[in-house]
Specification:
With 242 residues, this protein is α+β, with helices and mostly antiparallel strands. Helices cover 36% and strands 23% of the residues. The strands form 2 sheets. It has a 5-stranded mixed sheet with strand order 3-4-2-1-5. A 5-stranded mixed sheet has the order 6-7-8-9-10. A hairpin with a 7-residue loop joins strand 6 (140-143) and strand 7 (151-154).
Length: 242
């Protein structure tokens, strides 16, 4: 699927594409990583994610990189951002650019964060693997609740381009009913029809643990992710024209 750039006319769409090419997501992520490390940014855990107070530079970079959402202003040039568990752990564990406090104990290590997030969200291990898999390929990953899926992914910032895929995360073993999705054909049909109506394709990420447990983030390296796309077949588009 070709990217659908946003704009009221052809020129505006070309401008959006040019801006995205000039400032690729990999470059923005690298700038965010460097900025958070230099400022020694530290957030704190909540029941549904993590919060951090950031200055003007980080506000701009978090917005450009599409991490979290602003929730309230602390002072003139400082704002609180709320991150999902997947976003927070990606910045801590994969990018090594964020510290997170767990209360009065100071910054938590990777194992402590992993166990806390797993206790708050049963699907976290597989969802994180899927999230990190997409982020490492420089996709922008956002919540897909609006479209009845786990994630929505974009080639660049949502202000510049429409999302292309709606993502569902499935797994094996004890987690095979991870989110109870796609077990019956009616769910497959409804999901592909809904996404098709908004010009998106269903992308299923099948997380295979390969016999490993989820007791430590160290096991993530042994997980594999299989990608499958599912689309509706339209006989009108495929039949031979007479």
């Amino acid at each position: 699927m070709a990217p659908r750039w946003k704009g009221k006319d052809a020129k505006a769409k070309k401008d959006a594409e040019a801006e995205a090419l000039k400032e690729p997501m990999s470059k923005i992520i690298s700038q965010l990583q460097s900025s958070l490390v230099q400022s020694d940014t530290c957030g704190f855990l909540s029941d549904s994610g993590a919060h951090l107070a950031v200055g003007a530079e980080q506000i701009d970079l978090l917005d450009k990189a599409c991490f979290g959402r602003p929730v309230r202003t602390v002072e003139k040039d400082k704002q609180w951002f709320q991150l999902s568990f997947e976003e927070a752990f990606y910045l801590c564990y994969s990018l090594k650019c964020l510290k997170i406090n767990g209360g009065d104990t100071g910054p938590q290590n990777d194992e402590e964060l992993w166990h806390y997030m797993k206790s708050q969200k049963e699907t976290f291990p597989c969802f994180y693997k899927a999230y990190a898999h997409l982020r490492m390929k420089n996709w922008v990953v956002r919540s897909g609740a609006q479209y009845g899926v786990d994630f929505i992914v974009y080639r660049h910032h949502p202000a510049r381009v429409h999302s292309e895929y709606g993502v569902l995360v499935l797994s094996d073993g004890d987690d095979k009913d991870l989110n109870g999705r796609l077990r019956v054909w009616s769910d497959v049909h409804c999901t592909t029809r809904l996404l098709g109506s908004v010009a998106k394709i269903l992308l299923v990420l099948y997380v295979n643990k390969n016999g490993n447990s989820n007791e430590s983030p160290l096991f993530l390296a042994n997980y594999t992710v299989e990608e499958r796309t599912i689309t509706r077949w339209s006989p009108e588009q495929c039949r031979e024209k007479m």
